Amino acid sequence: xxxxxxxxxxxxxxxxxxxxxxxxxxxxxxxxxxxxxxxxxxxxxxxxxxxxxxxxxxxxxxxxxxxxxxxxxxxxxxxxxxxxxxxxxxxxxxxxxxxxxxxxxxxxxxxxxxxxxxxxxxxxxxxxxxxxxxxxxxxxxxxxxxxxxxxxxxxxxxxxxxxxxxxxxxxxxxxxxxxxxxxxxxxxxxxxxxxxxxxxxxxxxxxxxxxxxxxxxxxxxxxxxxxxxxxxxxx
Length: 235
Prior knowledge:
The chain is an all-alpha fold. The protein has two domains: about 10-75, Arc Repressor Mutant, subunit A, CATH 1.10.10; about 85-235, Four Helix Bundle (Hemerythrin (Met), subunit A). The protein has helices spanning about 10-25, 35-45, 50-60, 85-95, 100-120, 130-140, 145-160, 165-185, 195-210, 215-235; strands at about 65, 75. β1 and β2 form a beta hairpin.
């Protein structure tokens, strides 16, 4: 007869697991405040220190966030990923070489190609945010820092226009490594202005294809744009 070893789990892990399930199931809605420590202490029948450990575990997992150190904890929202642990983990993996640049390029092509194709197939979408970033790119001259910031916002806006929340979440998670590589590449160019002008024209043509409701053309243009951007780095 075989027996399974009995595992004694700390109480805070059991509290964290129940709260995590409530968040992931939607019982605790994104953006909503978590119950205060005193209430959780009463509900779970545990010490306040146990509740605090459980809440710290949720924060470490990126499921609970606070706007300021003294603010109450709330359930993570999609936009929190732009500065949250999920994004940080991806950035660290990329810098450690666990995610090769070639793989990031393929991810961007698949993600953004699908996103602009979906956006081109939707009716009544607004591309004002993307157009505004293109206008800003035309105004920054050879300021590569300002261009990089506008570029990242442009691509996030395009993915958001797809209406696909999963694609949007992934794009928010990868926006920093995308921007960091672009900025490093632009800084290495002796005269970046012609390159910035070319990239701006490519951005405008991608938006044109989406507004023309041409999903295949939009996907082809953004894929060519992304591959061209990374071509020098990949050799």
